[in-house]
Amino acid sequence: MNLVRWDPYRELEEMTNRLNRLFGRATATADGNEMMVRADWTPSVDISETDEEFQIKAELPGVKKEDVKVTLENGILTLQGERKQEREDKDLKFHRIERSYGQFVRSFTLPDLVDDAKVKAEYKDGVLNLRLPKSEKAKPKAIEVKVA
User: Fold this and answer.
1) Where are the transmembrane segments (predicted)?
2) Could you tell me the CA-to-CA distances from 128 to 43, 101, 148 in Å, in that order?
3) Which residues, at least 6 apart from 28, have a Cβ–Cβ distance to it below 8 Å?
4) Which of 9, 54, 117, 145 could crosslink 132 through cysteines, CB 3.0-4.6 Å?
């Protein structure tokens, strides 16, 4: 387990990112510089890690597979796409619209130990599942040391 020094600015940045998601804006990091990217909505993601790989699962309900684009460039993984609004019937009177539609963008800076050439993506039941294998040099190895 790695110890992480508490950084009040990082905590403030995370809170800002949550507020941006709430109000329909997404943040993205490119080459270490932060920039704001306007998005209509932001899908939720889970990021996990094993000894073998990182895994990112993004919830994209109502998004067609062909409307999702995943790119990996200079150590930055970007998910983007669009959830299109259903055709509206002009005789329909809406009482409430809570679902978000339109474009989305999420970007993640990947650690150096990800093997870019082996990244895989699968889309099923509105969930985008990305598998990011670690390079061989990054996998932990256990060796037995003989005591003389």
Assistant:
1) none
2) 10, 17, 52
3) 34, 35, 36, 37, 76, 78, 105, 106, 107
4) 54
Phi/psi region, residue 96 (left: phi>0; alpha: psi -120 to 50; beta: rest), is beta
As a whole number, mean pLDDT of residues 111-140 equals: 89
Question: pLDDT higher for 119 or 88?
Answer: 119
94, 115 contact by CB (below 8 A): no
By CB neighbour count within 10 A (0-12 exposed, 13-18 middle, 19+ buried), where does 103 fall?
Answer: middle
Answer yes or no: CATH 2.60.40.790 is held by domain 42-85+99-138: yes
pTM equals 0.65
Cβ(28)–Cβ(12) below 8 Å: no
Q: What is the DSSP letter of 119?
A: -
